[in-house]
Design brief:
With 245 residues, the chain is of the alpha+beta class. It contains ten helices and seven strands. It has two domains: 1-88, no CATH class; 106-245, CobW-like, C-terminal domain (Hypothetical Protein Yjia, Chain: A,domain 2), CATH 3.30.1220.10. The longest helix has 14 residues, at 40-53.
Length: 245
């Protein structure tokens, strides 16, 4: 990817698909070019997918790159704080209403949550057999492994990015935990008496998804009751960044 200059910088290891999705999820105007080469039904379905990824963007169909400059320059639409929180996966997490036209075309979304960690080997196997109908997934993941890290998952098409997202708040000294919980009421509401803020919270967006099947497959990746009592650092872990403290 870096050899083809498809990353933002030399330090950026995201796939080109991930970069494009990031742009869609943070835009306020989205241009669909070469619309004359696509059937109307396919265009409407594509717009529905894009609307699911970014509900608040203005979508403009164009041909041969021709667009009224007043539609894209000095529009006054961009608001960084609003746009950064307006992507479809964030809307799903905050329980905003689904867009009716997306559901009409089989485009749906759901949030998977669990207070039980994933076995690293079984989750890796799930990644290797990713459900084809899922076009976007994003969120935090709790892994049973050495070290007390939260993991970040970002999937777009065939690209799956998985890596560290920092320490769980529950792993920090009590005075630091208390400071954060007192200043963030939402964190306190979500706090578990045993595991603190440790949990998996993933948004899935896809076309004709079988939610029950995806959830069942993920459930099989969770630790069993017996495994919860074992030494998690001894589990086979193909995720190298979580292998060392």
């Amino acid at each position: 990817m870096l050899d083809r200059d498809q990353a933002a910088t030399e330090a950026d290891y995201r796939d080109i698909v991930d970069l494009l999705i990031d742009q869609i999820e943070t835009c306020d105007v989205l241009l669909l070019n070469k619309c004359d080469l696509v059937e109307e039904e396919e265009l409407v379905k594509l717009e529905a997918v894009l609307r699911k990824l970014q509900p608040s963007a203005r979508i403009i169909r164009i041909v041969n790159g021709v667009v009224d400059l007043k539609e894209i320059l000095n529009t006054g639409l961009f608001d960084f704080e609003k746009t950064s929180m307006s992507s479809g996966w964030i809307s799903e997490l905050t329980k905003q209403e689904h867009t009716p036209e997306t559901e009409e075309y089989g485009i749906g979304s759901f949030v998977y949550r669990s207070r039980i960690p994933f076995h690293p080997q079984r989750l890796s196997d799930f990644f290797n057999h990713w459900p084809e109908e899922v076009v976007r997934a994003k969120g935090l993941v709790w892994i049973a492994a050495r070290g007390d890290y939260a993991a970040s998952l970002s999937q777009a098409g065939t690209s799956i990015q998985f890596g560290p997202a920092g320490y769980w708040l529950a792993s920090l000294p009590e005075d630091q935990q208390r400071e954060v919980l007192e200043s963030e009421p939402e964190a306190q509401e979500r706090w578990d008496s045993t595991w603190g803020d440790r949990m998996t919270e993933l948004v899935f967006i896809g076309i004709d998804m079988n939610r029950e099947d995806v959830e069942n497959r993920l459930a099989r990746c969770l630790l069993t009751e017996e495994e919860m009592k074992q030494d998690w650092s001894r589990f086979n872990n193909p995720l190298p960044w979580m292998m060392e403290e």
